Protein backbone atom coordinates (compact mmCIF):
# COMPACT_ATOMS: atom_id res chain seq x y z
CA UNK A 1 0.00 0.00 0.00
CA UNK A 2 2.82 2.41 0.87
CA UNK A 3 4.53 1.67 -2.46
CA UNK A 4 1.34 2.48 -4.36
CA UNK A 5 0.97 5.74 -2.44
CA UNK A 6 4.62 6.64 -3.13
CA UNK A 7 4.21 5.98 -6.86
CA UNK A 8 1.01 8.05 -6.88
CA UNK A 9 2.78 10.94 -5.13
CA UNK A 10 5.68 10.83 -7.61
CA UNK A 11 3.27 10.90 -10.57
CA UNK A 12 1.22 13.70 -9.02
CA UNK A 13 4.37 15.74 -8.31
CA UNK A 14 5.63 15.33 -11.86
CA UNK A 15 2.28 16.40 -13.33
CA UNK A 16 2.25 19.66 -11.39
CA UNK A 17 6.01 20.30 -11.71
CA UNK A 18 5.93 20.17 -15.50
CA UNK A 19 3.33 22.92 -15.45
CA UNK A 20 5.90 25.36 -14.15
CA UNK A 21 8.76 24.66 -16.56
CA UNK A 22 8.43 27.97 -18.39
CA UNK A 23 8.30 29.90 -15.12
CA UNK A 24 11.63 28.81 -13.65
CA UNK A 25 12.71 32.46 -13.62
CA UNK A 26 10.51 32.95 -10.57
CA UNK A 27 12.45 30.54 -8.31
CA UNK A 28 9.35 29.21 -6.58
CA UNK A 29 9.54 27.29 -3.33
CA UNK A 30 7.98 23.84 -2.95
CA UNK A 31 5.16 23.36 -0.50
CA UNK A 32 5.93 21.23 2.54
CA UNK A 33 3.97 18.48 0.74
CA UNK A 34 6.52 18.64 -2.12
CA UNK A 35 3.60 18.44 -4.58
CA UNK A 36 3.05 22.06 -5.54
CA UNK A 37 4.75 25.42 -5.21
CA UNK A 38 4.07 28.09 -2.62
CA UNK A 39 3.74 31.72 -3.57
CA UNK A 40 3.26 35.22 -2.29
CA UNK A 41 2.21 38.37 -4.13
CA UNK A 42 5.64 38.86 -5.72
CA UNK A 43 5.69 35.28 -7.00
CA UNK A 44 2.24 35.76 -8.58
CA UNK A 45 3.48 38.90 -10.32
CA UNK A 46 6.58 37.04 -11.51
CA UNK A 47 4.48 34.18 -12.90
CA UNK A 48 2.31 36.64 -14.84
CA UNK A 49 5.32 38.55 -16.19
CA UNK A 50 7.05 35.33 -17.27
CA UNK A 51 3.97 33.75 -18.80
CA UNK A 52 3.91 32.86 -22.46
CA UNK A 53 0.35 34.16 -22.52
CA UNK A 54 -0.80 37.77 -22.54
CA UNK A 55 -2.93 37.49 -19.41
CA UNK A 56 -2.99 35.31 -16.33
CA UNK A 57 -5.98 34.20 -14.28
CA UNK A 58 -5.46 33.30 -10.64
CA UNK A 59 -8.56 31.68 -9.17
CA UNK A 60 -8.74 31.38 -5.37
CA UNK A 61 -9.96 27.99 -4.23
CA UNK A 62 -10.59 25.85 -1.20
CA UNK A 63 -11.85 22.27 -1.32
CA UNK A 64 -14.08 23.25 1.62
CA UNK A 65 -15.56 26.25 -0.26
CA UNK A 66 -18.89 25.53 -2.03
CA UNK A 67 -18.76 28.64 -4.28
CA UNK A 68 -15.18 27.76 -5.28
CA UNK A 69 -16.26 24.34 -6.50
CA UNK A 70 -19.41 25.70 -8.20
CA UNK A 71 -17.50 28.48 -10.00
CA UNK A 72 -14.45 26.42 -11.00
CA UNK A 73 -15.99 25.23 -14.32
CA UNK A 74 -16.61 28.87 -15.31
CA UNK A 75 -13.05 29.82 -14.37
CA UNK A 76 -11.71 26.97 -16.51
CA UNK A 77 -14.02 27.90 -19.38
CA UNK A 78 -12.84 31.52 -19.19
CA UNK A 79 -9.17 30.47 -19.16
CA UNK A 80 -9.73 28.24 -22.19
CA UNK A 81 -11.82 30.74 -24.14
CA UNK A 82 -9.36 33.60 -23.67
CA UNK A 83 -6.14 31.55 -23.72
CA UNK A 84 -5.16 32.60 -20.20
CA UNK A 85 -2.36 31.20 -18.10
CA UNK A 86 -4.44 29.56 -15.35
CA UNK A 87 -3.50 29.08 -11.70
CA UNK A 88 -5.64 27.81 -8.86
CA UNK A 89 -4.49 29.39 -5.61
CA UNK A 90 -5.02 27.55 -2.34
CA UNK A 91 -4.74 29.15 1.08
CA UNK A 92 -4.53 25.99 3.14
CA UNK A 93 -1.74 25.07 5.52
CA UNK A 94 1.05 23.40 3.60
CA UNK A 95 0.90 19.59 3.62
CA UNK A 96 -2.45 19.63 5.42
CA UNK A 97 -5.28 17.28 4.56
CA UNK A 98 -7.10 20.24 2.98
CA UNK A 99 -4.17 21.03 0.69
CA UNK A 100 -3.73 17.38 -0.28
CA UNK A 101 -7.47 16.89 -0.89
CA UNK A 102 -7.61 20.04 -3.04
CA UNK A 103 -4.62 18.88 -5.09
CA UNK A 104 -6.21 15.47 -5.66
CA UNK A 105 -9.58 17.02 -6.57
CA UNK A 106 -7.98 19.43 -9.05
CA UNK A 107 -5.80 16.68 -10.53
CA UNK A 108 -8.92 14.61 -11.22
CA UNK A 109 -10.61 17.60 -12.88
CA UNK A 110 -7.50 18.24 -14.98
CA UNK A 111 -7.38 14.64 -16.16
CA UNK A 112 -11.08 14.65 -16.97
CA UNK A 113 -11.15 17.87 -18.99
CA UNK A 114 -7.64 17.65 -20.48
CA UNK A 115 -6.82 21.24 -19.55
CA UNK A 116 -3.81 22.38 -17.56
CA UNK A 117 -4.59 23.53 -14.03
CA UNK A 118 -1.52 24.89 -12.24
CA UNK A 119 -2.06 24.55 -8.50
CA UNK A 120 -0.21 26.81 -6.07
CA UNK A 121 -0.58 27.56 -2.38
CA UNK A 122 0.11 30.67 -0.34
CA UNK A 123 3.31 30.48 1.71
CA UNK A 124 2.79 29.55 5.34
CA UNK A 125 5.26 32.20 6.50
CA UNK A 126 2.42 34.72 6.90
CA UNK A 127 0.62 32.65 9.53
CA UNK A 128 -2.54 30.58 9.70
CA UNK A 129 -4.55 30.08 6.48
CA UNK A 130 -7.03 32.91 7.00
CA UNK A 131 -4.31 35.30 8.19
CA UNK A 132 -2.01 34.58 5.25
CA UNK A 133 -4.94 34.92 2.82
CA UNK A 134 -5.96 38.30 4.28
CA UNK A 135 -2.34 39.44 4.03
CA UNK A 136 -2.15 38.33 0.39
CA UNK A 137 -5.42 40.08 -0.49
CA UNK A 138 -4.22 43.35 1.09
CA UNK A 139 -1.07 43.18 -1.02
CA UNK A 140 -2.53 42.05 -4.36
CA UNK A 141 -5.76 44.11 -4.47
CA UNK A 142 -5.29 47.52 -6.12
CA UNK A 143 -7.00 50.46 -4.37
CA UNK A 144 -9.68 50.78 -7.08
CA UNK A 145 -11.11 47.38 -6.08
CA UNK A 146 -12.81 46.65 -2.78
CA UNK A 147 -10.73 44.23 -0.74
CA UNK A 148 -13.07 41.62 0.75
CA UNK A 149 -11.85 38.44 2.41
CA UNK A 150 -13.81 35.94 0.35
CA UNK A 151 -12.97 33.01 -1.89
CA UNK A 152 -13.73 32.10 -5.49
CA UNK A 153 -11.97 35.29 -6.62
CA UNK A 154 -10.83 35.96 -10.15
CA UNK A 155 -7.52 37.82 -10.18
CA UNK A 156 -6.49 38.93 -13.66
CA UNK A 157 -2.93 40.09 -14.39
CA UNK A 158 -1.16 41.18 -17.56
CA UNK A 159 2.40 40.49 -18.71
CA UNK A 160 3.62 43.69 -17.07
CA UNK A 161 2.49 42.39 -13.69
CA UNK A 162 -0.42 44.80 -13.49
CA UNK A 163 -3.42 43.51 -11.54
CA UNK A 164 -6.34 44.31 -13.83
CA UNK A 165 -9.15 42.83 -11.73
CA UNK A 166 -9.80 41.31 -8.32
CA UNK A 167 -13.40 40.21 -7.94
CA UNK A 168 -15.37 39.76 -4.74
CA UNK A 169 -18.81 38.45 -3.79
CA UNK A 170 -20.42 41.87 -4.36
CA UNK A 171 -19.59 41.61 -8.08
CA UNK A 172 -21.96 38.64 -8.21
CA UNK A 173 -24.67 39.77 -5.81
CA UNK A 174 -27.24 40.27 -8.59
CA UNK A 175 -27.16 36.53 -9.26
CA UNK A 176 -27.67 33.33 -7.42
CA UNK A 177 -24.38 32.57 -5.61
CA UNK A 178 -24.09 29.30 -7.51
CA UNK A 179 -23.74 30.99 -10.91
CA UNK A 180 -21.11 33.65 -11.56
CA UNK A 181 -21.49 33.72 -15.35
CA UNK A 182 -23.16 37.16 -15.44
CA UNK A 183 -20.35 38.60 -13.29
CA UNK A 184 -17.81 37.15 -15.71
CA UNK A 185 -19.64 38.72 -18.67
CA UNK A 186 -19.93 42.16 -17.06
CA UNK A 187 -16.71 42.46 -15.06
CA UNK A 188 -14.04 40.17 -16.50
CA UNK A 189 -14.59 39.64 -20.22
CA UNK A 190 -14.38 43.37 -21.07
CA UNK A 191 -10.87 43.41 -19.57
CA UNK A 192 -9.83 40.42 -21.65
CA UNK A 193 -11.04 41.71 -25.02
Defining traits:
Glutaredoxin; 7 strands; alpha/beta; single chain; 6 helices; 43% helix; 16% strand; disordered N terminus; seven-stranded mixed beta sheet; 193 residues
Molecular structure report:
- The structure is a single chain.
- The protein has one domain (2-192): 3-Layer(aba) Sandwich (Glutaredoxin), CATH 3.40.30.10.
- It contains 6 helices and 7 strands.
- It has helices at residues 2-18, 41-49, 66-81, 97-113, 129-140, 181-192, and strands at residues 29-30, 37-39, 55-60, 85-90, 118-122, 154-158, 163-166.
- β1 and β2 form a beta hairpin.
- It is globular.
List the helices and strands and how they pair.
Elements: H1 2-18, E1 29-30, E2 37-39, H2 41-49, E3 55-60, H3 66-81, E4 85-90, H4 97-113, E5 118-122, H5 129-140, E6 154-158, E7 163-166, H6 181-192
Parallel strand pairs: 2-5, 3-4, 4-5
Antiparallel strand pairs: 1-2, 3-6, 6-7
Quick recap:
The protein has 193 residues and is of the alpha/beta class.
CATH topology: Glutaredoxin
CATH homologous superfamily title: Glutaredoxin
Strand residue percentage: 15-25%
CATH architecture: 3-Layer(aba) Sandwich
Radius of gyration: 16 Å
Instruction: Report mean pLDDT, rounded to a whole number.
Output: 88
Q: Any idea of the CATH class?
A: Alpha Beta
